[in-house]
Design a protein that fits this description.
This protein has 635 residues and is of the alpha/beta class. Strands 3-4-5-6-7-8-9-10 form an eight-stranded parallel barrel, surrounded by nine helices.
Length: 635
């Protein structure tokens, strides 16, 4: 590891780490991390007061051009052959995506089997190394979803020989581990990920077990997983960020001897800062017996807003698997965001991270982000890094002037790099006279590539909106795509809704729904308002008692003719529960639904039916009906 400084006309700072540090050198390297950060700060401070001119390069490796034409695809290095307990190229970093497991623990983010399969396919297009498909022991539905992903996505080998590892999470008990293995064993590369808490507070108050008991449980459960035929076992000491160091070294050494191939170091409560987490990783590499025979991984929660920074610090210190989620969703404040971690490595891997690289095809990031956002109903804040609506927006006059002269003045990442094509500057405006070709091109620029059938549905919705609006905006198109493409398996479909409301009497609603079997049903109801009466009419038809937990509506654009998007969150009064992975508690599932339309009542009813459809997909009579055909959405 080396740092170089130049105080001439150009300033540069680099840290090289061409080889994974050995046990004998890691401790010294780890102690130098904080020193190097201080050296860099001092050098910058010295240059600030120097009279000598200097430049500091902060752009990504892909050059920025004033031209509006799309740049060529970013150069991608070939990923090394997958071997569970080692990576032959010390600069390669495995990306472990846990959107379908930790991400789904976000309140209201329950996904159906079909939605999980769609997301898993998109993650495979993205090129993630490991997909944590779920927690099979949580419920029968979770088990079946993980099994389905293992059977399909876990066997889809591409022309380069890539196929993702399919992983199932389990607590350190026999039932969980057997369930995880039974679900993932159908994949070409199956993995079981087991964990047990190691911090004093968790062992005393949650587990009520001694250190010796915890070590024995961890060791025996890793052995059990290996004895079942699983050659790829990941072990996590939960709450490692608050665990005693010597105890960590001991338990990690024991699970290595028992057959673990990956050691994941979770900052479960997001309490560490980057220098602390880097030191933790380095200390584990320096002091754990047998650590040279495993891959070290990170899992950083975002409680203090440092998950991405901690993850990168862990990679800097020698971790070669990074756990993250699309859009950073997850328990409490979420996880390290995959798109942030990957683009940071793409952008700064060569210059300050010792040449680190990933196997991610970044052109599929935008589509993955949109799919997860729409399926979970967890909307992104506009200023979200990489994938937020404002990530490549420039409103300041000074910024716009710079962008017109050279895009590199204010953009360190090209939107094309993540699959988001720059808006055309030919003056094309979509309206009621626009055709399918213009619509297809604009959707492609927004990151959506749809088959002819889906495009046909979107086109007629687009024409209906265009008849009522002079100009159809990008926000309108995104709302329409979300309403047509990213919807749960259809059990009930809205045909018609008619409401009467006002100050002269009770609000009334008539609703017509059609079931998946073709049967049409009509119901009327009264309520305190048009939405309430419409929802009660739907309830009469569906006959599933639910509690409405959340209801929200937004206009996607300004103006009285804006499209309205509605999101609802419901809980079934007679629904089954699932087991929470970390606490072991039985929790009731909640289900979200979204709808869009120029009529706020229609939008509201669509959202409610979407949530009901998602809930019904979890009922005993429906899981076998879930389609496993390939999704029509691609990127």
């Amino acid at each position: 590891m080396a740092a170089s400084f130049t105080t001439a006309s150009k300033f540069s700072f680099s840290i090289s780490n061409p080889k994974a540090p050995t046990t004998s050198t890691t401790a010294a390297s780890a102690r130098s991390i904080l020193s190097l950060y201080k050296q860099k700060a001092n050098a910058l401070r010295a240059l600030h007061f120097s009279s000598k001119p200097y430049t500091f390069s902060t752009s990504c490796s892909q050059s920025q051009s004033p031209s509006t034409s799309s740049p060529p695809p970013p150069r991608r290095r070939r990923r090394p052959e997958y071997i569970p307990n080692r990576i032959d190229d010390p600069s390669y970093v495995r990306i472990f995506d846990t959107t379908l497991r930790d991400g789904e623990q976000s309140p209201g983010a329950t996904l159906t089997a079909k939605e999980k399969l769609d997301i898993a396919r998109q993650l495979a297009k993205l090129g993630v190394d490991i997909i944590e498909a779920g927690f099979p022991a949580a419920s029968r539905e979770d088990f079946e979803a993980v099994k389905m992903i293992a059977q399909e996505v876990g066997n889809a080998v591409d022309e380069d020989g890539y196929v993702p590892v399919i992983c199932g999470l389990s607590r350190c008990n026999e039932k969980d581990i057997k369930a995880a293995w039974d679900a993932v064993k159908y994949a070409k590369r199956p993995r079981v990920h087991t964990f047990i808490a190691t911090s004093e507070i968790h062992m005393e108050y949650k587990l009520r077990k001694t250190k010796e008991e915890v070590i024995e449980i961890a060791r025996s459960m890793v052995k059990l997983a290996r004895s079942l035929g699983c050659d790829d076992v990941e072990f996590s000491p939960e709450d490692a960020g608050r665990s005693e160091r010597e105890f960590l070294y001991e338990i990690l050494g024991e699970v290595i001897k028992a057959g673990a191939t990956t050691l994941n170091i979770p900052d479960t409560v997001g309490i560490t800062i980057p220098t602390e987490f880097a030191q933790l990783i380095a200390d584990i590499k320096a002091n754990t017996p047998g650590v040279e025979n495993v891959v070290i991984s990170t899992h950083c929660q975002n409680d203090l807003g440092l998950s991405t920074a901690n993850t990168l610090a862990g990679a800097f210190a020698g971790a070669r698997q990074l756990e993250c989620t699309i859009n950073g969703i997850g328990e409490r404040a979420g996880n390290a965001s995959l798109e942030e971690v990957v683009m940071a490595i793409n952008c700064r891997g060569e210059s300050v991270l010792g040449g680190l690289y990933t196997g991610i095809n970044t052109r599929h990031i935008t589509m993955a982000s949109k799919m997860v956002e729409d399926y979970t109903g967890l909307h992104l804040q506009p200023h979200k890094a990489i994938v937020g609506a404002n990530a490549f927006a420039h409103e300041s006059g000074i910024h716009q002037d710079g962008m017109l002269k050279h895009k590199g003045t204010y953009e360190i990442i090209s939107p094309e790099d993540i699959g988001l094509e720059r808006s055309n500057e030919a003056g094309i405006v979509l309206g009621k006279l626009s055709g399918r070709h213009a619509l297809r091109d604009r959707l492609k620029e927004l990151g959506y590539e749809l088959d002819d059938e889906k495009l046909g549905h979107i086109f007629w919705r687009f024409k209906a909106v265009a008849e009522q609006k002079k100009r159809v905006t990008d926000a309108d198109l995104i709302a329409l795509v979300s309403d047509e493409v990213f919807q749960p398996e259809v059990v009930w479909k809205l045909v018609d809704v008619q409401v009467t409301c006002g100050t002269l009497g009770l609000s009334t609603a008539t609703v017509k729904l059609i079931h998946a079997n073709g049967e049409e049903n009509v119901a009327c109801s009264v309520g305190t308002g048009p939405v309430d009466s419409a929802y009660k009419a739907v309830d009469i038809i569906v006959k599933e008692p639910v509690t409405l937990l959340e209801y929200s509506m937004n206009a996607v654009t300004e103006g009285i003719d804006a499209i309205a998007t509605t999101r609802v969150l419901i809980r079934g009064d007679n629904q089954q529960t699932s087991t929470h992975a970390l606490t072991g508690e039985e929790v009731q599932r909640t289900f979200s639904g979204t709808g869009a339309g120029m009529d706020i009542v229609v939008s509201s009813v669509k959202a409610y039916i979407g949530a009901l459809n998602k809930m019904l997909a979890f009922k005993d009579k429906l899981p076998t009906q879930v389609s496993v055909e390939k999704t029509s959405v691609s990127a």
